[in-house]
Automatic annotation (TrEMBL):
This is dTDP-glucose 4,6-dehydratase. One of its GO terms (molecular function) is dTDP-glucose 4,6-dehydratase activity. Its EC number is 4.2.1.46. It comes from Sphingomonas adhaesiva. NCBIfam families: dTDP_gluc_dehyt. The lineage of its organism: Bacteria, Pseudomonadati, Pseudomonadota, Alphaproteobacteria, Sphingomonadales. Belongs to the NAD(P)-dependent epimerase/dehydratase family. dTDP-glucose dehydratase subfamily. It catalyses: dTDP-alpha-D-glucose = dTDP-4-dehydro-6-deoxy-alpha-D-glucose + H2O. Residues 5-333 form the NAD(P)-binding domain. GO terms for biological process: nucleotide-sugar metabolic process.
Length: 356
């Protein structure tokens, strides 16, 4: 039996991991530490047994220390992060505070509890990072591997690179038992509607424009969040201490192709279920028109990386990782979830509209 702290566990990837871990290890206890900022939602983990939600900041080292001691924590899975690139361009301070200072706060608390006080407790600090720390690839460049030099190009990716280096340093300097994973673009249930797939899906249902940056040919490796959680589980159970593992979905697609898949999926869903036209009357598909008419090209964002791609050779070879979904299957599951969970996303959309 393990006792976990999952930081950011009320956010998108963290909440999916909490659901995943409850299924595969129902005997374990989980403390979710989440600041419940705009992207953290207690509803994401409602109804889960054996999960305690603590509203708090990872920068509060004293709080983290108390949680480790009070719950005999032996595993920290660290998702908490500011992660939206556009927000990092307009407000980088929050990214440095949460992603760098916050990660250091967790590392200090973990070191004090697991090493300095001499408990000798077997432990694990797993840090969840991003492929964006590696920079941008040209069309014919090999995919990112764990030995690719870091070349972050946005305040977001620079702050995540800093946190990665701190985790590595705490392992090599102090002996903290750490692992790190660098993942590609996640999508799936509970994703806050500011990222491409949920944003465009909900815009299409409301008849709003689908704003495509530049020429739409920026390429990403798309990873369904449940496949990501499976990869993290493999690392926690069998990953080598001190190692980094890249986790990808094996679905390298230009953004415009993703947008076209969203449009096709919504058109097909409306054709198959006439009740959707009553629920979402402003959608072009409700009026028999193609969702693709909402596509709009806008000025590219600053420092927009052209291509990311993940080389999964290490995690596949060492741990047997293999994503279960290609993008069409994964998106079909995701669209079905958003259509079935309007009560989850409507308050978020309404709140965002009020804040605009």
């Amino acid at each position: 039996m393990a006792n976990l702290i999952v930081t950011g566990g009320a956010g998108f990837i963290g909440a999916n991991f909490v659901h995943h871990w409850r299924r595969v290890s129902p005997q374990d206890s989980i403390v979710v530490l989440d600041a419940l900022t705009y992207a953290g939602n207690p509803a994401n983990i409602d109804g889960l047994d054996g999960v305690e939600l603590v509203e708090g900041d990872i920068c509060d080292t004293a709080l983290v220390s108390r949680l480790i001691d009070d719950h005999a924590i032996d595993t920290i899975v660290h998702f908490a992060a500011e992660s939206h690139v556009d927000r990092s361009i307009t407000g980088p301070d929050a990214f440095v505070t949460t992603n760098v200072v916050g990660t250091h706060s967790l590392l200090k608390a973990a070191k004090a509890a697991w090493l300095d006080r001499g408990t000798g407790m077997p432990h694990r600090f797993h840090h969840v990072s991003t492929d964006e720390v590696y920079g941008s690839l040209e069309p014919n460049d090999p995919a990112f591997s764990e030995t690719t030099p870091y070349q972050p190009n946005s305040p977001y990716s620079a702050s995540k690179a800093g946190s990665d280096h701190l985790v590595r340093a705490y392992h090599h300097t102090y002996g903290l038992e750490t692992t790190t994973s660098n993942c590609s673009n996640n999508y799936g249930p509970y994703q806050f509607p500011e990222k491409l797939i949920p944003l465009f899906t909900l815009n299409a249902l409301s008849g709003k424009p689908l704003p495509i940056y530049g020429d739409g040919m920026n390429v990403r490796d798309w990873l369904h969040v449940e496949d990501h959680c499976q990869g993290i589980e493999l690392i926690l159970r069998n990953g080598r201490i001190g190692e980094t593992y890249n986790v990808g979905g094996g679905q390298e697609l230009p953004n415009i192709q993703v947008v076209e898949e969203i449009c096709r999926g919504i058109d097909a869903a409306f054709a198959a279920d006439p009740s959707l036209a009553q629920r979402f009357p402003n959608a072009p598909a409700a009026q028999g028109r193609p969702t693709a008419e909402l596509k709009t090209y806008v000025t590219d964002r600053k420092g927009h990386d052209r291509r990311y791609a993940i080389d999964e050779t290490k995690i596949r070879g060492e741990l047997g990782y293999e994503p279960a979904r290609d993008f069409p299957q994964g998106f079909a599951e995701t669209l079905a979830w958003y259509l079935a969970n309007e009560g989850w996303w409507q308050p978020l959309v309404a709140r965002a509209a009020l804040a605009a």
